[in-house]
Amino acid sequence: MDERETKIQEGLEQIRPFLQRDGGDIEYVGLTEDGVVQVRLQGHCAGCPGARMTMEGVVARVLMEGDPDIKGVEAVD
Prior knowledge:
Layout: H1 3-21, E1 24-31, E2 36-43, H2 51-66, E3 72-75
């Protein structure tokens, strides 16, 4: 794992307790060449109506603050 992926994992660790409190979780899948972090939502977060707001309002913000080169976050199946 390179330094960039370590920063991504650290960011996800900050978010994870909030998701787990609601019965969900998040898994790092990969980083695209154009700087988009791919994650997989798990548990209650998978298919949750609020998942999009969580991705944009929390996950993307935390990860982009940790690494300005990250352009966005997308959920993958």
